[in-house]
Amino acid sequence: MQPRAIFFDFDFTLAESSVATIECANHALVELGLPAVDREAIRRCVAFPLPEVFARLTGIEDPQIGARFCEAYIRRADQVTAQLTTLFPGVEKTLRGLRQSGYRLGIVSTKYRYRIQSILSHLGAHDLVDVIVGGEDVRQHKPAPEPLWRALSRWQLAPDEALYCGDHPVDAQAAEAAEVPFVAVLSGPSLIAEFDGFPRRAVLQSVTQLPAWLGVME
């Protein structure tokens, strides 16, 4: 069945956010008197909510210290993220082509919706998608199915009427839990082997390969 809607993860699926994420995470760690960490360790944590990012980076599971990290991270992100984030080459053209072909498009991300909106506005791409479900919109983040279910409910779609594209195994887990067909894209730090065991319709190098896979002419 051809999907009626296509949902995308944001960081490392549509957007290159490494510089912003590394800046914000290390800024917050240093503010707490903790050492900065390796850039690749930060990149591999992007898919998770901020409290989990902190625990993964430091091994510290104290919720009060974690909350201070989150506050410092968000303050810095409000200052720099929109300016330091870009869409991957060809993504804007690809998504506009998919919209012109009749697909409804959305973003389903752990990143805050307001931040995604600010990034897209900064890039002049605020009209690129029809709906955004962000971290502040759900009680349970990916890999729980709630974010995808919320996106489906916006258009009263059944799970098999949509497609979810993501770069991280947590995206694959969420899609499986929500019973939404999944396409893995290898534009982030995750390796193809990390998607083994998860149902998937395809593995693509980039979102820009999606139209050809769907049989859509750009």
UniProtKB/TrEMBL annotation:
UniProt-listed SUPFAM superfamilies: HAD-like
Biological processes per GO annotation: DNA repair
Class of the enzyme per the UniProt entry, highest EC level: hydrolase
Alphabetized UniProt keyword annotations: Hydrolase
Tree of life domain: Bacteria
UniProt pathway: Organic acid metabolism; glycolate biosynthesis; glycolate from 2-phosphoglycolate: step 1/1
EC number(s) given by UniProt: 3.1.3.18
One of the Pfam families matching this protein, by short name: HAD_2
InterPro entries, A to Z: HAD-like_hydrolase_sf, HAD-like_sf, HAD-SF_hydro_IA, HAD_2, HAD_sf, PGP-like_dom2
GO MF annotations in UniProt: phosphoglycolate phosphatase activity
Substrates-to-products reaction catalysed: 2-phosphoglycolate + H2O = glycolate + phosphate
Protein family (similarity comment): Belongs to the HAD-like hydrolase superfamily. CbbY/CbbZ/Gph/YieH family.
Name of the protein in its database record: phosphoglycolate phosphatase
Protein species of origin: Anatilimnocola aggregata
